[in-house]
Amino acid sequence: MSLELSEPLQKVVDSLSEKFSEQLIEVYQSSGDTFIRIENSALIDICTYLKEDLGYIYLSDIVGTDRYTSDDRFEVIYNLLSFKDQARLFLKVWCDEENPELESVANIWPGANWNEREVYDMYGVRFKNHPDFRRIFMPEDFDYFPLRKEFPLLGIPGSIELPNTTPDTD
Amino acid sequence: MKLSDIQSKVESTFFKEHQKALYQSLEDKHTTIEEMDDGDPLTAKMILNMGPQHPATHGVLRLVLQLDGETIEKVKLDIGYLHRGVEKIAENKTYQEFMPYTDRMDYLSPYSNNVALCAAVEKIASVEVPERAHYIRMIGCELARISSHLLWLGTMVMDAGAISFFIWTFKEREKIYDVMDRIAGHRFTVSHARVGGVANDLTDEATAIIKEFTASFPKELKDYHKLLDRNRLFFDRNEAVGVLRTEDALGIGATGPVLRACGYAYDIRKFSPYARYNEVDFEVPTRMEGDNLARYFVRMEEMSESIKIIQQCLDKMPKGPVRTDNAKQAYPSKDEVYYSMEGMIHDFMMTDTGICPPEGAEAYHAVESPKGELGYFIQSDGTGHPWRLKVNAPSFANLQVLENILDGEMVADTVVIIGGVDPVMGEADK
């Protein structure tokens, strides 16, 4: 598949493939957006390089997805922006179902803090060296990860302790 | 007294693990502060739980503040009280079926949310939108921006102590409800955008009422400026309060007016223009101070820019269809549905199967909602339901900013700062 990258994105792909040729898995485009998939192990290095040298100083969002495959089940997508180049780039990593764990990028972009908590809350992907690792929407007492595909739409009865609806009479 | 004693004093009745983790997290923030003294109540330290049921928190936002006298030492936010799992719901609905749910996310500006979702679906499924529909959407989005900013203005000024102001901004907001009623047939949750266009064309009556509003609103805006711009009390409450420093703003992920008040002219309408924003002329107001007052000025100027955009849209709007005429991509018009067999079948197919983007396609599309960058990330598996739909909500990003800028402020300023950041919990909690 041939790529039609804009000039600044072409530069990013070129410099990444030069510096991290081993860790770059694939580069592809879909609906006009550019996605770069990398090895988990190089996440911190590549993110630091993208921020420090290529000007991707703004992390807009982190998306978790459940690919529902037997290998590399979970996908985490970093939505990065460069104001200098007016470009948006998506960085992807895959992780296993058994022990989904990634390095936290909260030390590179402090704003990743809540976004990573959200990915953990919804999919159970853990982040190492995270400054405040907790769930964010669901209470800590909740044992499931609701956006995983096997979680039923109607929820699991009894999984959340609800407050007593009848008023206390003491 | 060590702070860790707090946990033994709090007897949570439910979500015990959650409460424990929250207090632990508060304890762990800025770990340099360790000792808590008990003595004079004005200098004593205490933990204050604010919310989730609190009139000034703009919804169900809970803050746990550690106070030293009247100063906030550190704060943790607890969100999720309005978590309805819309992303899970989206995976089980067609794109069009999900659209009314977006109204209930940022419920202060439903129109922008509809447009954000529809634009993302159009991007992933390569749907062409007619020219006229783009302009109608822009008018709707800008009205939604004014409506949202009016609510922010009213509540923020009320948080600062002026109650009557709230009634005046709501008078104008009421007019926007009427305009929306004429445009879409609904006052509040409009659900007007459709994949491939909008639900219906603007009637002459609707155009007239929009014109009337754009003519009368600048005068009201001038009055607001007159009342607040040189108001000593308002300045004292807002100047140098809730400062987000320019160097921190990007890293922490601020967006929308909060980011623009720090000096970055980041506006999706200019950054990657959608609809026909590249054909209208407008400014992106910015300020350098990053405090609550700067946010006030940015939003006030945005309202007058919005009026400018609406007027230009009304002038430039071409005649023509308002929805793409392709039965595989958009609902057919009601005329077709009621009077032809094919139209009926197409309508049924759109409702049953919906629009099917190519298998494996991924797309992200963002719009500039009143609160900031509102983006939808969609992954398709080739069916009419999204495989994954992620909402990048601006309020979520801005609440994270709030957690960081509250440290060191006065407790009395908390509500003003929340008002200045202007979060909507429906959107932040998803």
Topology:
The complex is a heterodimer of chains A (about 170) and B (about 425).
Chain A: H1 7-19, E1 24-30, E2 33-38, H2 43-52, E3 58-66, E4 74-82, E5 87-95, E6 101-103, H3 112-123, E7 126-128
Parallel strand pairs in A: 2-5, 6-7
Antiparallel strand pairs in A: 1-2, 3-4, 4-5
Chain B: H1 5-9, H2 16-28, E1 45-50, E2 62-68, E3 71-78, H3 86-91, H4 95-103, H5 110-124, H6 131-159, H7 164-184, E4 193-194, E5 197-198, H8 204-228, H9 232-238, H10 246-252, H11 257-260, H12 268-271, H13 292-316, H14 334-339, H15 341-352, E6 362-369, E7 372-380, E8 386-392, H16 394-405, H17 414-421, H18 425-428
Antiparallel strand pairs in B: 1-2, 2-3, 4-5, 6-7, 7-8
Helix pairs in contact in B: 4-5, 5-6, 6-7, 6-13, 6-17, 7-8, 8-13, 13-17
What does this structure look like?
The complex is a heterodimer of chains A (170) and B (430). Chain A has helices at residues 7-19, 43-52, 112-123, and strands spanning 24-30, 33-38, 58-66, 74-82, 87-95, 101-103, 126-128. Chain A has 170 residues and is of the alpha/beta class. In chain A, strands 1-2-5-4-3 form a five-stranded mixed sheet. Chain A has a two-stranded parallel sheet with strand order 6-7. In chain B, strand 6 and strand 7 form a beta hairpin. With 430 residues, chain B is mostly helical. The longest helix of chain B is centred in the middle third of the chain and has 29 residues, at 131-159. Chain B has three domains: 5-78, no CATH class; 86-125 and 129-323 and 358-428, Cytochrome-c3 Hydrogenase, chain B (Orthogonal Bundle), CATH 1.10.645.10; 325-354, no CATH class. A three-stranded antiparallel sheet of chain B has the order 1-2-3. Chain B has a three-stranded antiparallel sheet with strand order 6-7-8. In chain B, strands 4-5 form a two-stranded antiparallel ribbon. The interface between A and B is large, with 44 and 55 residues.
